[in-house]
User: Fold this.
Amino acid sequence: MTTGTDVKDAQVISVSTGTKCINGEYMSDRGLALNDCHAEIIARRCLLKFLYMQLELLLSTKEDQQKSIFIKSERGGFKLKENVQFHLYISTSPCGDARIFSPHEAAQEDQGDRHPNRKARGQLRTKIESGEGTIPVRSTTTIQTWDGVLQGERLLTMSCSDKIARWNVLGIQGALLSLIVEPIYFSSIILGSLYHGDHLSRAVYQRIAEIEDLPPLYVLNRPLLSGISNTEARQPGKAPNFSINWTVGDAGLEVINATTGKDEMGRASRLCKHALYSRWVRIHAKLSSSLRTKVTKPNLYYETKQAALEYQSAKECLFKAFSKAGLGAWVEKPVEQDQFSLAV
Assistant:
């Protein structure tokens, strides 16, 4: 995060690792398991936790309120203070469309895509359960069912390239926080290796450049994209099964088993849906008079997310843009995953 023009003042908000997803049999219908433990996805969940911490400062003393990165918005709810920017650093290109056509380092003069019109360019792709790599989605909508997955159908999770493209339209705050804060976008995405300008820009925004009818404040964000001059060395070998996360303010690291989506003792992560929803409900109770969208007594996680009407409408525009560009249909998780409330 930067709060001005001097990069020396940048602050590390979160650090994460991981390259695997949950095994279908461990899905939780109470929001207690992490579905996707790829590092980028975990880093963004850490960022959500940080945003909640910053909103919690607003409920505290005058002094704490001034420390928060949020201020009241004249449009209702809250927005980031003027110079606050978020930057995503990834050690290598995100899986899916950004990486599939550029598995090697590009020479300085070789940043262009030699075959930009090939059909496979830009396709939505999914990670596969218990494996690495990605496969293209089907062109028609794939509905994943709870019982189907529990009976052995492979659970599909959208690739990191696709999720980053989604954040560039819907914002990184997600549906719940969009009820309280205006959309927040990454200002830059920097890769430690396998940076190919053409492939990365296509993957994270260019392929949906024709997106239409976005609601107010939602845009197609085009962050600064860059590689670093000394690329990170590739670490060949089998990827570990665990994912590590840390957010500023945490006393220590949390290690999650990516296969189960919980820690080795079977405890839920501090980043799971249930944990973040608990924080949302607490903040909602205190700030309900100054929300961007009024929500009646929050109950099911799914219903509260659906109440974010502008966010849901922006999501429809995003899915339409992918579909219209012939890039396939977004694959969503079984809806039962989100049908939980906080009552024990």
About this structure: The two ends are 36 Å apart (CA to CA).
